[in-house]
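Title: Request for sanity check on YdbS-like PH domain-containing protein prediction

Description:
We are preparing a figure and want to confirm that the structure record we downloaded matches what your pipeline produces today. Could someone re-run it with the sequence below and paste the raw structure tokens into this thread? We only need the token string, no images.
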Amino acid sequence: MINTFNIPEHLHERLRSELKAGEIITWAGQPIPSIYMKSGMKLWFFFIPWTAFSIFWIAGASGFEIPSFEEGWSLFPLFGLPFFLIGIMGLSSPFWLKKNARSMVYAVTDQRAITISGIKTITVKSIPLDQIKNIERIQHANGSGDLILQTRTYLDNDGDRSTEKFGFFAIDNVKKVQTEIEQLLKSQS
């Protein structure tokens, strides 16, 4: 099968390996890494103060001085180190999202919608086309955006209501992809 979509060959091969016999790809694409990473920027509103407070706490626990090891050394300031590391990990999450976007592929076939993600461990999610009911499109001025194909509400382990969205996030020309899916759905009904 020839790679007529604008995706790297190794991802096209990964997609081909997931296809059922006779299944035909009608569209395939990837998230735009620079836009996909922006979803992680919202976390910065939490992790900037978290990290700043952990630094302040470590400094306060050491008496706002660089420790001198002449009188022994207190381990107490090190209790703030895990919180500082969590803050650094949270602040770096947009960059991890950007890296992960390069290993993701989205596809629509004549039978289902598929997302494949992961670098070492691969996660494949798909929904049959007949389960796509209310498509939600979030479009930016440049034509990119998110296409939500299915929203599922469920109760988590604590009994709280949670929502899971399946779709294609941070894709280019989102309206065109929506139109292609809607035409495919019409042709099958």
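Thanks, this matches our download. The chain has two domains: 9-30+107-188, 40-98.
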